[in-house]
Amino acid sequence: MNVEDMKKAVAKEALRYIEDDMVIGLGTGSTTAYFIQFLSEKIQKGELEEIYGVPTSYQAKILAMEYGVPVVSLDQVDAIDVAVDGADEVDPNLNLIKGRGAALTMEKIIEYRAGTFIVLVDETKLVDYLCQKMPVPIEVIPAAWKAILEELSIFNAEAELRMGKKKDGPVVTENGNFIIDAKFQRIEDPLDMEIELNTIPGVVENGIFADIADIVLVGTKEGVKKMER
Ligand SMILES: O=C(CO)[C@H](O)[C@H](O)COP(=O)(O)O
């Protein structure tokens, strides 16, 4: 089983948690894209009814619209039953780093409020501690980017402004902000770090998702494994 097959396997497995009449937070990224596709197939077959998706990004919204999954915004719903999203790192306590796709703020807004937050990863995302492989994406107000970059040196972070790939200059998020990717040495206390980073003036949100995930479905060569809080 290659990584792509693992992503598909966890996306299929996540459907087990979806029932009629649910409002579902739709995450961002390649793994969640499979989930949206498979969710749509079940809806088209009539196996799921009265499903509404709350997208965490334009990517999720456009995919849902293309696949015919009804889309609503957060302010149109009373509650989110389940949210499904990928992650960049998962530690043994189900703490996450997210935000490679620069959608971390809306992802956290929605996933924090979900009755059940299900994370879909392949086994390459499992780490012993956060920041083992990936930096923490931090969404910042553009005017503050340079000051924040310097302030992050207090944490011994190697931090850089994220630059566009098919755009000149910095990546601009869907909220009109910049992203700083900060590689810390090792995050000992994810919750503490998540809160501390958000106290820096100009920081909108950061990609540490501590104590939010309820279930992590991990695609492995041996099949899907479940980690649960
Ligand atoms: O946080 C994210 C986007 O902001 C993604 O969920 C995360 O990067 C995982 O993506 P993929 O499933 O493509 O590996």
From TrEMBL:
GO terms classed as biological process: D-ribose metabolic process; pentose-phosphate shunt, non-oxidative branch
Q: Give the reactions, separated by semicolons, that this protein catalyses.
A: aldehydo-D-ribose 5-phosphate = D-ribulose 5-phosphate
Recorded hits in InterPro entries, A to Z, give: NagB/RpiA_transferase-like (IPR037171), Ribose5P_isomerase_typA_subgr (IPR020672), Ribose5P_isomerase_type_A (IPR004788)
Pathway of this protein? Carbohydrate degradation; pentose phosphate pathway; D-ribose 5-phosphate from D-ribulose 5-phosphate (non-oxidative stage): step 1/1
Q: Which UniProt keywords apply?
A: Isomerase
The UniProt subunit note reads as follows: Homotetramer.
Q: What does this protein do?
A: Catalyzes the reversible conversion of ribose-5-phosphate to ribulose 5-phosphate.
Q: What protein am I looking at?
A: Ribose-5-phosphate isomerase A
UniProt source species: Pyrococcus kukulkanii
